[in-house]
């Protein structure tokens, strides 16, 4: 999502359901973190990104061991995450840490 994007367009709306989250879901982990659990982890991540501002973005890349999630601000890498039970907290903490370092909190 960039500054010109609408958060609803970028991350979906109630009418679209979970469709916008599909590219971020990691089916290789469905045995340990099922689909609903991943939705429950990803939804607040995107809520946090939307609230943090349009200059934050999360990209998902496939790797040999599953998806990697890269948190960006203005296309600068802030942190890289894997899908685990702490994903939501890890992303929120990284946003808060960066905002604190930038004097935005």
N-to-C SSE string, H for helix and E for strand: HHEEEH
Derived structural class = alpha+beta
Number of helices: 3
Helix content range? 25-40%
Tell me about this structure.
By secondary structure, this protein is α+β, with helices and mostly antiparallel strands. 36% of the residues lie in helices and 22% in strands. It contains three helices and three strands, in the order H-H-E-E-E-H. It has a three-stranded antiparallel beta sheet with strand order 1-2-3, covered by helices on one side. A hairpin with a 2-residue loop joins strand 2 (66-73) and strand 3. Helix 2 (35-52) packs parallel to helix 3 (87-101). The chain is globular, with a radius of gyration of 13 Å. The mean pLDDT is 86.
In short:
Helix content is 36%, strand content 22%. The chain has helices at residues 7-11, 35-52, 87-101, and strands spanning 56-63, 66-73, 76-82. The protein is globular.
Question: Characteristics of this structure?
Answer:
105 residues; 36% helix; three-stranded antiparallel beta sheet; single chain; alpha+beta
Q: What is the topology?
A:
Layout: H1 7-11, H2 35-52, E1 56-63, E2 66-73, E3 76-82, H3 87-101
Antiparallel strand pairs: 1-2, 2-3
Helix pairs in contact: 2-3
